[in-house]
Design brief:
Blueprint (H helix, E strand, L loop, with lengths): L1 H27 L49 H7 L9 H11 L2 H11 L3 H10 L9 H5 L20 H6 L14 H19 L2 H10 L1 H13 L13 H18 L17 E4 L5 E2 H8 L3 H7 L7 E2 L7 E4 L3 H10 L7 E5 L6 H7 L4 H8 L11 E5 L6 H18 L25 E3 L6 H7 L4 H8 L11 E3 L7 H22 L2 E3 L6 H7 L4 H7 L1 H4 L8 E3 L5
Length: 562
C-alpha cells in the first residue's frame, strides 16, 4: 500500500500543478456585472513601496500580460474584446508607474470617463480592429478628451480626438457655421485613425506615432535626426521632447494597464455591452434638433451627446451628413418623420448689420435676449459685427422648449470648453432696411438700396433675386416691391440650402487643391483608397506616379473631378 502511494505522489503533484494556474486566474479575476460601479481605491498605505506591488509594478502581475480567462458572463463585455486586442509591449518605467498612480487615485473621475465612453467605444473599437491597429488606440480619447465630445483645449483643439483646425482640414474635417467635423463622432474617428496610421507608416513604431500625434510629425522627425546623430537607436525614450509629450505615451500605457487589470489598482470597471450604441440615419431634410429628439422619442441632451458636431440647434442636412440616434430609436424616428406633416424648422439664419443692437434684433423677432445669446453664443457682446445668427421663424413653437434647447447648447459650451466655439461665418450688410419684419416675403426698395445690397441682406444672390422678380437688369426703383420668396419653399429652408450649397462648393474647391505628401510605406493603392479616387486617376494627375516612381516627400496632386 505504501508502495502505491509512493508512485502516485508525483502524479498528484503534477495534477495539482496543472490546475493551479487556472485556480489563480479564476480567483484573481474580478468579473464585473453590468450594474457594478467603479469602487474605491485600496486602503491607503503610507509605508515604503513594495517593488512587486501590482500598483507600482503591474508587470509583476501576470494578469496584465495576457487577458484573464473569460467567464460566460464576460462574453458580451466589450472590455474583454478590447483587452484581447492589446498589442503594445509592456513598458516598465517610472513615468508609466507615476501615471498609473494618478489615474488610480481618482476612481470617481475614471467612473465618469468610462460612463461617457459607453456611447462611443463600440464604434471606435470596431474601426480600430478593421485597420489591424492595437486596441490601445481606442483608449486614446481617455487621454485626449476624457471622452467629452465637445472638449476644447487651450491650443484650439476640439472633439474626442482633439484635432487642431489645420490638421482637421488636412484630414478632410469640414467646418461651417452649422457644423464642426472635429467634434463629429464618426468623421473625427475616421480622420484620427487615418492620421495615426500615417504616423505609424512614417515612423514604424506606435510610441513614436503617438508622440507625433501629440507633438507633430515635424517635431518627432527633428528629434529623431538629433538622436541618430548621437548614434542612438530610434525610440520614444531616446528622443528629447516637450514635457507634455514626455507624459503622453505613459498616460496611454497607464490607462491600458488599468483597463487590462483594474483589480490590481483597486478599481472595478463595469461591463460594457458588446453591441452598437448608435446608428447613423439620413433625414433627407433640414430640421430642428428639438423636433428630431421628439420624433425619435429621446432627449435633446442625448441627441447632442451623439451629434456634438452640430453647433447650432438645427440639423443642416447634406447627402454625406448623418444624424446619429440610439439604435433602439431609429425605427420610431423614421416612422414618425414619414408621418409628420408640419414645418420642420423653427429657426432661420439672419445676417446682422455691423453695429446693430442685439437687443433690437431680439425685440424684432420676439425672442428673449438671454435666449438669443445662448443659441448664438454671443457672450457679453451688445452689438453685431455683421455675423450670421439664428432667429425664430414661426410662433407655433413652444417657447419654453425652444429656450431649453438654447440653454442646453450654451451650457454644453460652458461646461466642456475653455475656448470660444467655432466663429460664425462673417457677412456684412451696408444698408439698413426700414421695413424689415419677421419672416418677410417681400421688400420695398428704399433710397440708397442696390440689387446687391438687398440680396446680401436677405441671404440671397443678386441672380436669385433677379430670377425671382423676373428682372433683366440690375436697376431697382425706389418704392418698388421685390419678392423674397417664391411661395414653394420657406425662406429658412432656402437659406439653409444655399448655405450648404456654398459649404459644398468651398469643400469641393479645397478638395480640388488637395495634395498628399508621400511618406515612407505609402503605396498608390492605399493613397487612392484614402482619398476615394482610383489608382489610374492618380497616375493621370501625377507623371512620376505613372512611371512607378513614388519617392518620400513627393507631393501628389489629388483632384475630385465632376
Amino acid at each position: 500500500m505504501i508502495k502505491i502511494k509512493f508512485h502516485l505522489a508525483p502524479l498528484f503533484a503534477l495534477v495539482a500543478a496543472l490546475f493551479a494556474p487556472q485556480a489563480f486566474a479564476d480567483e484573481g479575476a474580478i468579473v464585473p456585472t453590468p450594474t457594478e460601479s467603479v469602487v474605491k481605491l485600496p486602503e491607503a498605505d503610507n509605508g515604503p513601496a513594495v517593488s512587486n506591488s501590482p500598483l507600482l509594478n503591474p508587470s509583476a502581475n501576470p494578469m496584465l500580460n495576457k487577458p484573464a480567462l473569460a467567464l460566460p458572463s464576460e462574453q458580451t463585455d466589450l472590455w474583454v474584446r478590447v483587452r484581447q486586442g492589446f498589442k503594445m509591449g509592456e513598458v516598465d518605467t517610472a513615468a508609466v508607474r507615476a501615471q498609473e498612480r494618478i489615474y488610480a487615485s481618482k476612481p470617481e473621475y475614471m467612473q465618469r470617463v468610462i460612463e461617457r465612453s459607453r456611447r462611443y467605444m463600440y464604434f471606435i473599437v470596431g474601426e480600430v480592429e478593421k485597420r489591424g491597429m492595437p486596441t490601445e488606440i481606442a483608449l486614446l480619447p481617455i487621454v485626449e478628451s476624457a471622452f467629452i465630445p465637445r472638449a476644447q483645449s487651450h491650443a484650439a483643439a476640439s472633439g474626442l480626438w482633439q484635432f487642431i483646425p489645420s490638421t482637421g482640414q488636412r484630414y478632410g474635417l469640414e467646418r461651417t457655421w452649422w457644423y464642426d467635423g472635429r467634434q463629429d463622432v464618426m468623421a473625427a474617428t475616421y480622420a484620427a485613425l487615418d492620421y495615426l496610421q500615417d504616423l505609424y507608416n512614417l515612423f514604424g513604431d506606435w510610441q513614436l506615432a503617438l508622440a507625433a500625434y501629440n507633438w507633430g510629425e515635424g517635431g518627432v522627425g527633428r528629434a529623431l535626426a538629433k538622436s541618430r546623430a548621437k548614434g542612438l537607436e530610434d525610440g520614444f525614450d531616446n528622443i528629447k521632447k516637450p514635457q507634455e509629450t514626455e507624459n503622453y505615451v505613459p498616460k496611454l500605457l497607464a490607462v491600458r494597464n488599468i483597463i487590462a487589470n483594474p483589480a490590481a489598482f483597486g478599481l472595478s470597471i463595469p461591463a460594457m455591452p458588446n453591441q452598437p450604441y448608435f446608428q447613423p440615419v439620413s433625414t433627407g431634410k433640414h430640421m430642428d434638433l428639438q423636433l428630431a429628439a421628439k420624433l425619435a422619442g429621446t432627449t435633446v441632451e442625448e441627441l447632442l451627446q451623439l451629434n456634438p458636431g452640430l453647433i447650432r440647434p438645427v440639423f443642416a442636412h447634406k447627402e454625406d451628413r448623418k444624424l446619429l440616434l440610439p439604435v433602439d430609436k431609429v425605427v420610431a424616428f423614421e416612422e414618425n418623420l414619414q408621418r409628420y406633416d408640419k414645418p420642420l424648422l423653427s429657426w432661420q439664419p439672419y445676417v446682422t448689420k455691423r453695429g446693430e443692437s442685439f437687443e433690437g434684433i431680439a425685440g424684432k423677432f420676439g425672442i428673449q435676449m438671454a435666449e438669443l445669446r445662448d443659441v448664438n453664443k454671443l457672450g457679453s457682446a451688445r452689438a453685431a459685427n455683421g455675423q450670421t445668427i439664428l432667429v425664430p421663424i414661426r410662433d407655433s413653437v413652444d417657447v419654453s422648449e425652444r429656450q431649453n434647447l438654447a440653454a442646453l447648447i450654451a451650457g454644453a459650451g460652458k461646461q466642456e470648453a475653455d475656448q470660444p466655439p467655432v466663429a460664425a461665418r462673417q457677412a456684412s450688410a451696408r444698408t439698413e432696411s426700414r421695413t424689415e419684419s419677421r419672416a418677410e416675403s417681400s421688400y420695398q426698395v428704399q433710397r440708397g438700396d442696390t440689387l446687391f445690397s438687398i440680396a446680401k441682406r436677405n441671404g440671397m444672390t443678386a441672380a436669385e433675386l433677379k430670377r425671382l422678380n423676373g428682372m433683366r437688369s440690375n436697376h431697382v426703383a425706389q418704392g418698388s416691391i421685390l419678392k423674397l420668396e417664391d411661395g414653394g419653399r420657406s425662406q429658412a429652408a432656402d437659406k439653409l440650402a444655399r448655405s450648404d450649397k456654398n459649404d459644398k462648393a468651398d469643400s469641393a474647391k479645397a478638395s480640388a487643391q488637395r495634395q498628399h505628401v508621400v511618406r515612407r510605406g505609402d503605396t498608390l493603392d492605399e493613397i487612392a483608397r484614402r482619398y476615394d479616387v482610383s489608382v489610374s486617376d492618380l497616375k493621370k494627375w501625377n507623371r512620376p506616379a505613372a512611371r512607378g516612381a513614388l519617392r518620400v516627400g513627393y507631393k501628389l496632386q489629388i483632384r475630385h473631378e465632376g
